[in-house]
Amino acid sequence: MSRYRIQYADQAEASRKAMQPAAREQFEQSMTSKLGADPYGHGSTALKGDRDYREATVAGAFVVYYISAAVLVVTAVRIVH
């Protein structure tokens, strides 16, 4: 199974950096192990009828993200923790 690379848009990156270090580490590990392995699974939901625009809860944070399946990238665009 291919792994997806995780990247963060500016707004999501700012939210990620604002997390406490322990929470950020747990969040990053969960992003890699859950969304990096299967971005369409783990209780995620498609938004606005777009299969590749999704939301999920990861390590207690609400994440909105896009999936670029052709290049195996998940881009988090918003994180609410």
Distinctive features:
5-stranded mixed β-sheet; about 80 residues; alpha+beta; 5 strands
3D structure, described in words:
This protein is about 30% helix and about 40% strand. It has two helices and five strands. The chain has helices at about 10-20, 20-35; strands at about 5-10, 45, 50-60, 60-70, 75-80. A five-stranded mixed beta sheet has the order 1-5-4-3-2.
Brief account:
This protein is α+β, with helices and mostly antiparallel strands. It contains 2 helices and 5 strands.
Helix content: 25-40%
Structural class: alpha+beta
Distance between the termini: 30 Å
Globally, the shape reads globular
The profile of the biggest β sheet is: 5 strands, mixed
Q: Can you count the helices?
A: 2
Q: Using the CA coordinates, give the radius of gyration.
A: 12 Å
Q: DSSP strand (E) fraction?
A: 35-45%
Q: What is the strand arrangement across the widest sheet?
A: 1-5-4-3-2
Which stretches are low in confidence, meaning pLDDT under 50 for 5 or more residues running?
Answer: none
SSE topology sketch:
Blueprint: E1 5-8, H1 10-18, H2 21-35, E2 45-47, E3 50-58, E4 61-68, E5 73-80
